[in-house]
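#struct-pred

JT: dropping the chains for the assembly here, can someone run the whole complex?
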Amino acid sequence: MTASAPNTPSVDRSAGIKRGFSAGSFFIYLFVGAFAMMCLYPFALVIAGSFTTKAYSTLHGFTLWPGTDGLTLAAYQSLFVNMTFIVNGYKVTLFTTVFGTMLSLFTNSMMGFVLSRKHLKGRRVINFYVLFTMLFSGGMVPWYIICIRYLGWMVDTIWALIIPMLAGPWNIFLFRNYFNSVPDALYESARIDGAGDFRIYSSIYLRVSAPVLATVTLFTALGFWNDWWLGLMLIKDHTELYPLQMLLRNIISNLQFLQTMESSAQVQMMMASIPSDSVRMALVIVTTGPILLLYPFVQRYFVKGIMVGAVKG
Amino acid sequence: MTNTASETARSPRGTGARRSFIQALSSWQLYVMALPTMALLFVFSYWPMFGAVLAFKRYRVRDGILGSAWMNPLLRNFQALGSADARQAIRNTLFLNFMFIIVGTAFALTLALMFNEVRHKTYKKITQSLSFLPYFISTVVIGIFASGMLNYENGSINGMLAALGREKIGFFMEAQYWPLILLIVTIWKGAGYSSVVYLATIAGVDAELYEAAKIDGASRWGEMWHISLPMLRPTVIVLTLLAIGRIMNADFGLFYNVTQDMPTLYSTTDVIDTHVYRLLRKRGDIGISTAVGLFQSTISFVLVLISNYAARKIDDSAALF
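RK: done, full complex below.
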């Protein structure tokens, strides 16, 4: 029995099939399928919505298939006319995502490496220094005041979208835990060969940590790509520095602002010139598209990431 | 300190203090490598912690944080916690998070058990991939999704209601629907993610247990009830405890973007984080908003310590620290 233990999962699986496709199985498949469809539905709705004419949506509401009469490319055409602001947003977001992720990986993995050196004097203190930031926070307001009042050089520059997000305690601990599992002999022998700590970190430890690098890269890049908070708080006058998510947000605010105003002729004209719901949806497709396209390729790192994330920090 | 034996073997000369000084010196590169992150954490985490003294001050830009005058009485800013708005925000935060924890955990657990029973590999792979797709989406986009469904003029749900001859619902005007809407959004966004954690735990269960149960004639539901679920218990308890530690904190982006910050919905959707944000940006009251935030993070801190202590009691490896 013990000899067959490693094979039991497959035995188990075939035994499951032998049980037949009962009503219970049917319910399980239905439940799981229904949830998957529920997760997919808003995406499908927004894709369909971005091609829907205003006439159709006011009459029937957005649907998954507006019929051939309800289809239009107008939303995308109007985005095309306003290309410059989208291209601008893309430039900002691409820069913060690529550069921010690289910087963040570099600093956090270095810190993880330092914390994994068991003989380092003061390691426990540094470890606590990092950990404490996960337990207590001064709150959003002092953070904001410090950025605005004391770090004014950063406000309204692209650095405001990168620097505050660089240090990530969670990622630091992911790196530390991974580096802890690297055999010490690797470090010791490199040390004897005369390599310095930075050398050992960059040419040995980083080389053997592809799995954790992939996972942290994915989560960090996603964080930068989806960020709008820093744009909202720290970009004040230079709106050309708005990242994509902030452009999306702003379009919503503009619509709301106009809806709450009295309907004058002037407002009507403005309403005609600002994007309708379909344009907003088209912008969602344009800004979220890259994530959806990359998703099938990166999602396995995501699953791995959740599993290592479940290990303690 | 723990391997004094090997260290003495390596450097027989010198006394303890001198030896450790030399040892620290030889790893100077490590200290330099720690510097960038330590500086970043200092500026964006520790400095704001000290900056929280603003809760006890009357902030003036000209005077800065240190130079601003103290409040008189010192705790005056904290009186704002007694206001109807603040009490409502605290109540909403606790109630909504409590509901999210209970229903969200139950749902994610059910989902994981169901995924575990799906034998068709491709079907499992596709449904599972779709289930955590929402986790990749920004809250701004989730806000647009919600609007596409709930809008009065052209939302898909109102379209369906109209097609059925029912009256449309002005979701963004009626607060009573929002606890449910936010619950659905939270499950939609997070259940797939949580189920992966549970699935990983189930995968770690010894296959022999299931084998033995099968020999004893256990049904599929019996296996679920008597093996999978008990095995998941420590994980569920620990994750729930850690969630309780964060019960004072809400996902600002979710609440701000999905409700579109509509004042008509505040009575059920305004949470501490959105309340603080509004005190800061709309009313510009630095002292009061800092005080409410400090109240939140202090309670949070205590809760995190307690819940982590409890989690460690149950499963030593699962605690946060």
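JT: nice. The longest strand of chain B covers residues 57-58. The radius of gyration of chain B is 26 Å.
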